[in-house]
Predict the 3D structure of the following.
Amino acid sequence: QVQLVESGGGLVQAGGSLRLSCAASRSIPSIHVMGWYRQTPGNQRELVADIRSGGSINYADSVKGRFTISRDNAKTTVYLQMNSLKPEDTAVYYCNVHVIATMRGYWGQGTQVTVSS
């Protein structure tokens, strides 16, 4: 079992920045994907960005050029640097780890990001 703890959400004005962090409770099996998703009321959770254990990165078109996903060398913490925030970025952001070998996924509790206009 992997527990994920997120931090860094909050209220920011449009154009501002926030950095989200997600720490795993233990090391993650070697082949995995760590990512950030977001969800607004009445909508499905959507991928924001993810990073594979081999290093490849994927971004949603809506955040390309503004958000940056990264991780620590131990691959137990993943970050999401969010710049040039827009009101439409307002959502609950969830951290996710997907272990390829077991096809199991783990979610954090979510952190609220609110961008005021």
